[in-house]
Amino acid sequence: MTQPAPRRRPLPWATLALSVALALPLSARAAADLEPAPMGAVSLAGGQFNIRHEKLTLANGFELILVEDHRLPLVAFNLWVHAGPRNEAAGQTGFAHLFEHLMFAGSRHVPRGAFDQFIDAAGGTDSNGSTNFDRTNYFFTLPAHQLELGLWLKSDMLGWMIDEVDSIALANQQDVVRNERRQSFENRPYGIVEEATYQALYPEGHPYRAAVIGSHADIQRIRLADVKAFARTYYRPNNATLVLAGDFDPAQAKALVQKYFGTLQPGPKPPEVKVAMPEITKERRLVVTDRVELRRLNFVWHTPAMFAAGDAELDVAAHVLGGGKASRLHALLVRDRQLAQSVQVGQDSQSLSSLFSVEIVARPGASLDEIEALADAELTRLAAEPPTDAELAQARATIQTQLLQRMERVTTLADLVNHYNQMAGDPGYAGADLARYAAVTPASVSATVARWLRPDHRVVVQALPGEPVLPPEVPTPPAPTRAAKGERESLNAAEAWRRQPPRPGRAAPLTLPASHSFTLPNGLTVIHAPKPGLPLVSASLVLRAGQAANPADRPGLASFVAAMLPEGTATRSGQQLAESLASLGATLQAQAGAEDARLEFSSLKASAREGLALLADVVQHPAFAEAEVTRKRAQRLTALAQTREQADELASTVAQRVLYGEGHPLASPSLGTEASLQAIDAAALRAFWQGHYRPERAALVVAGDVTEAELRDWVQPLFGAWQPTGPAAAEQPLPPAQPAPRQAARTVLVDKPGAPQTALTLVAPGPKAGLPDAASVKVMNAALGGLFTSRINHQLREVKGYTYGMFSGYSLGRERGQFTLSGSVRTDVTGPALADLQREITAMRARPLGAAELQRVRNAQLLSLPGLFDTNGAVVAGYAANWAVGRPLNAITELPAQYGAVTAASAFQAAKQHLQPAQLITVAVGDAAQVLPQLRKLGRTVEPRDADGRVQR
Fold first, then answer.
1. What are phi and psi for residue 750, nearest 5 degrees?
2. Which of 178, 134, 129 is nearest to 158 (CA)?
3. pLDDT digit string (tens) for 367-403?
4. pLDDT tens digits for range 425-443
5. Which sign does the torsion angle of CA 199, 201, 207, 208 carry?
6. Residue 65 vs residues 43, 53, 231: alpha-carbon distances, Å
7. Count of CB atoms within 10 A of residue 848's CB?
8. Is 489 or 742 the better-scoring residue by pLDDT?
9. How many CA atoms lie within 13 A of 450 on its CB side?
10. Where does the Peptidase M16 C-terminal domain lie (predicted)?
């Protein structure tokens, strides 16, 4: 089971780049003139993509944009408040983001903590918020029959949140946000490097100078009076826009929006922010040390604001230089010269000004000076010589595919429309946006690079391994236990009718995407899930060739084989494959998990057959060329070293080693070990491929705008001639895991001196796929730690303020199952956090769920199902996973009945049978000097291990 991401995660800097800057809506009237409305909001007319929409403004200034889309019985609610860090006062960095957190704390008519519970009970998905420099957004997606519930919740957040925020709520969210900062900056590789870069780029007083999340000092000094003043100024209906996208009746939606938002009182016009673009006239260089394994080089320039002249050209330049494996810097530094582990280039467009950045992570031993000289030479060449027509075509193909993929989900479609409404002043601006890219020429790209990306106008940052230099620690004061008098105030009058949540409309029957299969004569299973609506296709070739198939002396072999497949075939080099995919606007990725390997593909329908031909070539005719094997081995050895940087990843890696025991196929990292990587050669790779990559042991899963007849026409000539080239590998049963002794849970500590947080991972053996009560297990886990509103996350985050997020889940594999509970906590509360976790686990096994909690968490699993299969990629992933674990095709379509049958008794039985505290292995990665005494205070015997998981004596 995939664990949910922590909620209210800010996007660290500016967040809307190339893949976002390309929607193509027309006005509702213009679109309606082109063709009748289809089931979806997106149509093709005149060779362009159009999004039908309607925009209106209430008397109080509140903006509403409607995007009618009947592909699925879902409605996305996307509320943008037009305020972000650009609107913060001096000394209040992080204020806009902290306010985002407070918006979920409760309102006058929605009790504290109930907002997320309403969303869960309704079957909501994608419930979250985010802040970037220019705006704050709040979004969720609900089943269509809950349209009125969504408007009730959104309107109360905007109009009556300030009524309920007090010093207790403020102190709690200050703790949560500071934990988020520790997790996202101080305890994340290169986090403080990024912050230092922005401080070098922008002068004091510029609203983009600080991280969106703010500093510890500024977050802690925010007072309740500041919160109220910010609400009075910015959180008013005349400074907000709601986009509704999905399955609704426009007339009903308009009437309900008027009912719920029409009585909100407007505020004064927010003050305008006018800041000149900073100008750098002499290169600025800085060196920042951090707890990182690899050195990193960054170049950053100030560039034109979003949609200004030159912005589109710099998007294209970013693609040419570092937009994937086909790009110039990747080919030069990663593939040919092998000096870099990774290259990323982007035009980060914002309203006041943008940034163009080049980020190069160096291989061990590589010279940053040499890397800089080579990268500068490529920049100079692009400024002097226009890119080729093929490079420009690749950029445009990528843009087109990313555009349609962003329109595939109503959640991201709604956000895209809101983006254009604020940043361009018109949700129908996207047609003009597309025209910008159509107007780009090779010469204009070159001229724009020459003008803006000059060496004397940039900041150069070298990130080096070492101890980070952090500001003095800001103490966390004791949280108040009660609110003082006079802490509450109102911007809008109370309306008693709002206290009762609206009743849902009539729900449509809950159906999930069905599939059927056919088998080619060579034994390849083809699973087809038709999903018309947008001209997109996704596919996954899944094989039982994961980590479990590794020989005992070759950990990492399965993932090495998968990684090599796109690196060259008998007729195409890795570079040629990358260029072919880029010209199609397609993606092809290969990876091996615990029990299966997958080659995942996506593209426009028009490119799908040609792209699938590349996939067929990759899986049937891999080259395993010696030079490429050597290069990829070095890259994987470097990646293995990088895992030591990430505390959460390190905790997970060590936990697997302890759980499964030495010599078990799942005990080592998927990358393998240094010894095994050095020993694996081309012959070993080819032998594994011959034994495991066979049509009779594979399934091709395809979803999207393709009929069965079309699919048969594609796959028979591409995959029908696939035949094994050697004997099949024997399928050995997977050995069992090695749980902790039942008399005492096991605790492992990995020292990470100076870490501001402790990364915790708790693991235990769990049930396998095919479990009759799997739905009961998942409902029980939803209550325990699977949902944002779960007992564990609520206690450790919302009550105690110990963490940014703590979640649990079950992985039900074909031959192995596992329970995992993980998250990071503040270092000084590691012991109390573990004690709380133990209490919550014990309580889950002590008594059945109450009726209200059962209904909420069961509905969160049941009613959210349509929203979990809303893209081609999600449908493909679901059916690929089913096949990999040996489940029948109808296992997905039967999920509603299975979840609907879960009772308090069956969930309680699942907890008693599959939640075993005595089998839990706890791995803590943190500052041992602070953590060890806390663990001993709990009475735990602690087993020290190093970063490779080896026992220390």
1. -115, 120
2. 129
3. 999 999 999 999 999 999 999 999 999 998 898 888 7
4. 989 777 777 788 889 999 9
5. negative
6. 18, 7, 23
7. 17
8. 489
9. 13
10. 222-397, 680-860
Residue 403 is predicted with a pLDDT of: 77
pLDDT of residue 33: 28
As given in the structure block, the two tokens for residue 365 are 């031993």
Strand, helix or coil for residue 291: coil
Q: Report DSSP state, residue 19.
A: T
Dihedral sign for Cα atoms in the order 49, 50, 51, 57: positive
Between β-strands 525-530 and 698-704, what pairing exists: parallel, antiparallel or unpaired? parallel
Mean pLDDT score, 538-546:
97
Give the per-residue SS3 of 298-340.
Answer: EEEEEECCCCCCCHHHHHHHHHHHHCCCCCHHHHHHHHHCCCE
pLDDT at 9: 33
Query: Residue 452 in contact with residue 393, Cβ under 8 Å?
Result: no
What torsion do the CA atoms of 712, 713, 718, 722 make, to the nearest 10 degrees?
40
Domains of the chain: 52-271 (3.30.830.10), 284-409+421-465 (3.30.830.10), 516-572+581-719 (3.30.830.10), 746-873+886-945 (3.30.830.10)
Measured CA to CA, the distance from residue 15 to residue 20 in angstroms comes to: 9
| DSSP one-letter code for 25 | -
What does the DSSP 8-state code read for residue 424? T
Residue 230 reports pLDDT greater than 70: yes
Q: Give the integer Cα–Cα distance in Å for 518 and 712.
A: 9
Question: β-strand 296-303 against 284-290: which pairing, if any?
Answer: unpaired
Residue written as tokens 């100008």? 279
User: Where would I find the beta strands (DSSP E) of 316-411?
Assistant: 340-348, 354-362
The answer on pLDDT for 13 being more than 50 is no
Query: What DSSP string runs through 757-819?
Result: EEEEEEEEEEPPTT-TTHHHHHHHHIIIIISTTSHHHIIIIIIT--EEEEEEEEEE-SS-EEE
The pLDDT of residue 21 is 27
Residue 701 β-bridge partners: 527, 540
User: Cβ distance 932 to 942 under 8 Å?
Assistant: yes
3-state SS of 187-240 is CCCCHHHHHHHHHHHCCCCCCCCCCCCCCHHHHHHCCHHHHHHHHHHHCCHHHE
Is-contact 693 521, C-beta < 8 A? no
